[in-house]
Recover the amino acids of this structure.
């Protein structure tokens, strides 16, 4: 069984119930809703379909809602696109206009106050670059440094400039309210630049009386990497968008930055997630597979599929292919290194000590599984951090707790009726492991947890069983 989780973004190619079911059966753990392109009606339909499928398949698929964030985009152009040529002079207007090859408008009127002479502005994923020459009363005069095609509503990146745009838009506020109502499991924050951005979302969740949604901060801005330690500290996890980062940071630095962030997350016990790009040429896909394998070796928790499953022709096939890549890559993972690294930074408490012992024994004895009865997922997450060489089955009677474990490495949540009886847990664990895993006589597995169930607040036992 693969241990690295698969996040698939849902779109026109994958929204149908039959396709969603096949994606879940082929390895999708988390469904991602990108609110830059999704309506609330679309989201509601996907959520209800997934929950119906989960009930049918006895699975626990998590939902991640990715907020739009404080994006800046161009306005509309004549015929929907224009060509800017190198050395052309272009004016950026604050008021909405129809653009052409000499001018266009942007969605953020405060841009003129934030930019300075020589500020670099990149458009359309960095394919076009402008340099600010001067600021006038109602427009910004720029020179084209790198020419190319610009389409209507193209993304605008302002390099090495602090923008005073509000982090929470009215649209994002409504989407967060919806997420609370529909019991979404994870909230992805786009265009984070500081810990204050995350704390402002936290305050909003408190306002909505929600203490359940986990916050995943997306790293796609240069400022975010500069503040990465503080951002990790107040987040539940980090999603690294290497392509977006490459617009603002030299591409040759991106691999080392990704490795650094994954390591920092692991040391702080936070989730690390990488966005992949599997919809390019065959040569690019081979390079991406190599990058994925490296990320697995670095200890990433999950991978995100984007266009491949939203508008791609083969969403199910892509999920299936990623699953095979993960299973192959995980065979070469150095699990002992993760155990030692996590132990050096683990809080010295009973649960942490037992989690270390469980994973250490699992690796030394080549156990085929770890089973944990849990009421809140805490111990399962602790064990996941140590990166055991075998799957972790988290047995819980709480559907919300089951879905809250969707992104954690190696954890397979299983809904059970109750966890109050020790004998029942022993029996359930054996039944689940023998059904889920191909085993041989003499194979070992570990059961761990806190007993008496529902009474103790920490893990206090581990039991090694043999099949």
């Amino acid at each position: 069984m693969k241990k690295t989780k698969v996040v698939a973004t849902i779109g026109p190619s994958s929204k149908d119930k039959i396709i969603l079911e096949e994606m879940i059966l082929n390895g999708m753990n988390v469904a991602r809703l990108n609110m830059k392109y999704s309506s609330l009606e679309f989201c509601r339909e996907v959520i209800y379909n997934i929950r119906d499928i989960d009930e049918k398949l006895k699975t626990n698929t998590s939902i991640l809602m990715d907020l739009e964030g404080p994006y800046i985009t161009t306005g509309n152009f004549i015929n929907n696109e224009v060509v800017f040529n190198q050395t052309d002079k272009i004016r950026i207007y604050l008021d909405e206009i129809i653009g052409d090859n000499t001018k266009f408008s942007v969605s953020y009127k405060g841009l003129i106050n934030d930019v300075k002479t020589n500020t670099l502005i990149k458009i359309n994923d960095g394919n076009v670059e402008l340099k600010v020459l001067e600021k006038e009363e109602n427009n910004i005069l720029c020179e084209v440094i790198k020419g190319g095609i610009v389409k209507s509503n193209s993304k605008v990146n302002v390099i090495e400039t602090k923008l005073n745009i509000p982090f929470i838009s009215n649209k994002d506020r409504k989407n967060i309210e919806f997420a609370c109502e529909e019991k979404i499991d994870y909230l992805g924050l786009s265009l984070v630049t500081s810990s204050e951005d995350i704390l402002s979302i936290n305050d909003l969740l408190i306002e909505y009386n929600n203490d359940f949604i986990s916050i995943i901060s997306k790293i796609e801005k240069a400022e975010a990497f500069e503040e990465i330690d503080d951002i990790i500290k107040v987040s539940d996890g980090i999603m690294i968008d290497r392509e977006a980062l490459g617009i603002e940071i030299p591409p040759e630095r991106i691999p080392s930055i990704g490795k650094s962030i994954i390591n920092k997350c692991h040391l702080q016990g936070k989730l690390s997630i990488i966005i992949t790009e599997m919809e390019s040429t065959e040569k690019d896909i081979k390079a991406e597979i190599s990058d994925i394998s490296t990320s697995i070796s670095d200890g990433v928790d999950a991978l995100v599929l984007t266009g491949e499953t939203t508008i791609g022709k083969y969403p199910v096939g892509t999920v299936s292919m990623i699953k095979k890549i993960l299973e192959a890559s995980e065979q070469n993972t150095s699990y002992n290194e993760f155990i030692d690294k996590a132990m050096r930074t683990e809080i010295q408490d009973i649960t942490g000590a037992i989690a270390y012992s469980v994973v250490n024994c699992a690796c030394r004895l080549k156990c085929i599984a770890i089973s944990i009865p849990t009421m809140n997922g805490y111990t399962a997450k602790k064990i996941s951090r140590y990166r055991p060489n075998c799957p972790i089955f988290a047995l819980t009677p709480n559907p919300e707790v089951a879905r809250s474990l969707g992104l954690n490495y190696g954890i397979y949540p299983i809904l059970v009726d109750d966890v109050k009886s020790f004998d029942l847990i022993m029996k359930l664990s054996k039944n689940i492991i023998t059904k889920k895993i191909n085993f041989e006589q003499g194979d070992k597995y570990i059961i761990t947890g806190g007993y008496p169930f529902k009474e103790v607040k920490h893990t206090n036992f581990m039991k090694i069983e043999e099949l």
Q: What stands out?
A: The chain has a mean pLDDT of 92. The chain has 17 helices and 21 strands.
